Amino acid sequence: WDMNRVLVGSVSKLEFLKFDDTDAKTVFWHSSAHMLGEALEHSFGSKLTIGPPLSGGFYYDCYMGEGNFNLKEEDYKVVEAEVSKITKQKQKFERLVLTKEEGLELFASNPFKLSIFNTKVGDGERTTVYRCGDLIDLCRGPHVQHTGKVKAFACSRHSATCWLGETSNDSLQRMYGISFPDKKMLKVWKENQEKAKERDHRRIANAQQLVMFHELSPGSAFWLPHGTRIYQKLMNYIRDHYWKRGYDEIITPNIYNLDLWHQSGHALHYKDAMFCFPVENQEFALKPMNCPGHCLMFANSIRSYRDLPMRFADFGVLHRNELSGALTGLTRVRRFQQDDAHIYCREDQIESEVLGSLEFMKEVYTHFGMTYKLELSTRPKKALGEIDMWNKAEKALANAMNEFAGVGNWKVNPEDGAFYGPKIDIKVMDAMERIHQCATIQLDFQLPIRFNLQYSTGSKVKGEEFTRPVMVHRAMLGSVERMFAVLCEHYGGKWPLWLSPRQFMIVPIHADYNGYCEKVRKVLHDAKFYVDVDLSKEKFNKKVRSAQIMQYNFQLVIGEAETTNETVNIRTRDNKIEGEVKLSDLVAKFAALRDEFK
Q: Cα–Cα distance between 417 and 381 in angstroms, integer?
């Protein structure tokens, strides 16, 4: 509710929010987005489209004209200077109510706003706009009192996009921004951004020779040998959990007839994000997700209640046709793999299966050294399925979360579930205290209906011989590519021993000891450690420093004493000298660290 707006009717609760409250930040950044839009209009004559607040700032999409003018980093200062003027003017945010006809007349020169008006506002209806300065924008509000409340503003990045996300529509430019009520807060934010740049997975992956990209396959990573080591380790780590937790790994096709996606419902809403192509006069597509294929496998045989739960796990390669301007390192790609699994269970097994998935998630993120928060997203207004089933499912999820985390240690997101079932949102925090949503647990009532999935109940009662399973979508890592990026930045490129692609570098003090170095290398290699030997002619200190820069966890220094005593002298990548260890004890020492996920 706007501070300047008169309260209407009786008020049972009145609460004043400060900037550190999530809802207050949303309003503050929403107002800042309007200021950004006004600045873009003033600076470039842009036609504005949409400008929402985000969890960490805001953006505005704008049409830059027929010449396809693209925003550049040099434009940031221009926009920031214009916003500074807007701030100093202390322009009031004024709420105005319009009829649809008045709105269409007001925005006659902006086809994008006209499209929104025609889509969102019915004939004979009224809607609201907000005015600040000479900007009038379609908006429900609320807003801060005036632009002077925004004391600090910065453009953070930009990208290309398309109107409504459709590649066939007009190309747009997206400008992101951040703002605060205090300049000191912006200074802290910029300092954190610089730290984040140092940890940027793209910089680290390039420096450590882990991943490369090529213009001939945009949005698809080329995993170099050392990057592949981490990628495979993450998947094998999850596979070890599958073995312990009763999952069956399966392999499914990459290419399906589009009829599958019509049956699943994805073609209606998702086709533009799929790679489609003709095959013998029929339309096929690369799969963007695994779930429909898993449904075909479940439906392939007659299932009994005794067979459930069935847990299908699939690392199949997925493709999604992301816009080229949206591709960002490993966090937004076109080709990726997920630790994707679908559990088919009875209604009475929902709680135990969800609890098992939560315990799985806890172990994974504990090993990664990350914390998490849980949220239950409940039935949305446009949900499909019977309310009674939704209520039972939400209760089962709540019971599982109470048993797992304790009553009061999770929150509810009302009406934020998927249309096909409630879900648990798992938000993990990295070393920079940034929030990532990688793991997910979702119930699905709709795909079992669309694919006519059923199992024998064992009942002799007519009409009750068969019933539908409940489907649980779950992932612990989510996209392996994205998790790789998250972990890369979480560790700052200093991979723990168990994940590290470069675990040991053996450094001889002199070439006379090269023979013993090879013996040590073989012992470690046979124990399945990644180990290299620096036999170059560089000086000793240069060899050690080079190994530390490349983030080898340990350097094993070998000289005359170590060769004579059959030992190694251990030095860490942080240049801490741990001293001599017998070769016979070396494997056991580091195997223990590896097994403890250190």
A: 9
Strand stretches in 37-151, DSSP E: 47-48, 53-54, 57-63, 94-99, 126-132, 135-138
Is residue 322 over pLDDT 80?
Answer: yes
Is 241 a known active-site residue? Answer: no
DSSP symbols for 516-549:
HHHHHHHHHHHTT--EEE--SSS-HHHHHHHHHH
Catalytic residue among 155, 291, 295, 517: 291
Active site residue 548: no
Is 182 designated active site? no
Beta pairing, strands 435-444 & 470-479: antiparallel
482 in catalytic set: no
Question: Is 291 an annotated catalytic residue?
Answer: yes
Q: Residue 309 corresponds to which tokens in the numbers above?
A: 């739960």
Residues 483-516 pLDDT 10s = 999 999 999 999 999 999 999 999 999 999 999 9
> Nearest 5°: CA angle at 477, between 472 and 480?
120
Question: Out of 113, 201, 423, 543, which one is annotated catalytic?
Answer: 423
pTM: 0.81
Burial of 436 from C-beta contacts in 10 A (0-12 / 13-18 / 19+): buried
Annotated catalytic residue within 226, 303, 311, 342: 342
Which pair of structure tokens corresponds to residue 30? Answer: 């929403």
CB 207 within 8 A of CB 198: no
Tell me how far apart the alpha carbons of residues 272 and 169 are, in angstroms, rounded to a whole number.
Answer: 12
Question: What is the SS3 assignment for 268-327?
Answer: HHHHHHCCEEEECCEEEEECCCCHHHHHHHHCCCCEEHHHCCEEEEECCEEECCCCHHHC
Q: Which residue has the tokens 């494997």?
A: 587
Closest by CA position to 449, among listed 276, 586, 263: 263
pLDDT in tens, 93-144: 999 999 988 989 999 999 999 998 888 888 888 999 999 999 999 888 899 9
Residue of 137, 340, 430, 444 marked catalytic: 340
pLDDT tens for residues 548-571? Answer: 999 999 999 999 999 999 999 999
Is-catalytic flag, 266? Answer: no
DSSP state of 483: H
Q: In the annotation, is 340 catalytic?
A: yes
In the structure encoding, which two tokens stand for residue 268, read together?
């209606």
Nearest alpha carbon to residue 227 among 333, 330, 137 = 330
3-state secondary structure of 342: strand
Question: What is the arithmetic mean of pLDDT over 24-29?
Answer: 94
Radius of gyration of the chain (CA): 28
Kindly report whether the peptide bond that precedes residue 53 is cis, defined as omega within 30 degrees of 0: no
User: Which is catalytic among the residues 149, 287, 311, 320?
Assistant: 320
Q: Which of 229, 311, 334, 473 is catalytic?
A: 473
Among candidate residues 91, 173, 208, 338, the one labeled active-site is: 338
Cis peptide before 309 (omega within 30 of 0): yes
